[in-house]
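User: Predict the structure for this protein chain, please.
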Amino acid sequence: MKTLKDIPDSDIRGSLPALRRAARAARELALRTRTPLYVWKDGRVVDALAPRRRGRTASP
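Assistant: Here is the predicted structure, written as structure tokens:
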């Protein structure tokens, strides 16, 4: 497997860091707005933030 430095196309080189930034931004937004963040995990769609929200009550 090639490393990102070995890939000549700059768009492809920048795609993985861009996806990571987008995932981080989506997680932060879901936490701020107390909304679910659905992801594909082990062949199922799950709320990635559900364990963090358990036991918390929503504020009015």
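Helices lie at 10-33, 50-53.
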